From TrEMBL:
PANTHER family: HISTONE DEACETYLASE 12, HISTONE DEACETYLASE HDAC1-RELATED. This is Uncharacterized protein SYNPCC7002_A1628. GO terms for biological process: epigenetic regulation of gene expression. Residues 1-23 form the signal peptide. Keywords: Hydrolase, Signal. It comes from the Eukaryota. One of its GO terms (molecular function) is histone deacetylase activity. Residues 86-349 form the Histone deacetylase domain.
Amino acid sequence: MPYIFQLILFNMSMCLFYQNVLCQSKMMKNFLPKENIIPKKHVSSLNLDIQAEEFRKSSKKVTKYESKGLPIVHHYKYVSELPVGHRFAMKKFHGILRYLRQDNVISMKQVVEPCPLDMEKMSGVHTTDYLKKFFNGLTSDNEQRRTGFKWTPGLVERCQYETGGTLLAAQIAHQKGLACSTGGGTHHAFPSYGSGFCLVNDLAIAASQLKEQKLAKKILIVDLDVHQGDGTAFIFQNDLDVFTLSMHCQNNFPLTKQKSDLDIELENFIEDLEYLAILKEHLPHVLNTFRPEFVFYDAGVDPHVNDELGYLNLSDQGLFDRDYYVLKLLASHGIPCATVVGGGYSTNREQLYIRHTIIHRAATKIWNENL
């Protein structure tokens, strides 16, 4: 084929790609409450490194939340470098913030920056031996293969900030009722090893810290990622004050499941209405019997029909309805909640970034209605 025709075809395909991304972003705006008017602050560049630098310069460490909007916890160091083509969409954490700003869901006044969490605060969940190996780059090749990551100092720093972000979101939610991180949900990490793109268990660490700081005694972890939260279940298997609920695809990773306090195992390819009906059958009962003082919500988007590791068939609207239902129910019970983004896998990175903003859009609607 002559070069000029190849060039024309390439340009046409790129135009179609960005039209598709723009369309999905516009569709997401329909999920927002009409009364949510936020001054427009577009981020025009698709270069996420520039986005990270812009955020770094415009943000500051905040210990007291002053904005009237939904608290959003983010740090540019949620992202570290990975090899080109790696399955884990590391830059999604910046992509989430970019689309939230571009679509006027949030303003930068709502964004709070966490501090990194040190080894000592992680030691309430993870073994000293594992933490020393992980922090110092001494994990074996087999241990690294199990996580899906080749060790780098940047990965350690990323985990410190992401875990600090989940804890900060919880601390703010304890005061304000609701807060959302743009990262978190590393539920496959066990006390003595990492697994499945999870190096330390931010949910378990943050829950343990809340208990230690006496901010909450009874904690519920609602994990709606498509994969069982096996690490979290194992960590709290003998802790009567932490209830682990995992609603996941039965025929999916991990092959060997742990025992959560409540495991809701789903058949492949169920869709929006059936999924939500099952959730509505179980979650109110847990709230009424366990009576948690605080909830961590893992809003993984890998149950989506287009997720490459999910095997369920939820739509964008189905994910929004799920998230809105969970947060609305918690708000009606007066239970504070911190949300994390959990898993999501797609080679179409832009659509994945947009999909991960659904929890923040649902939370914004709840915030405007209730808090």
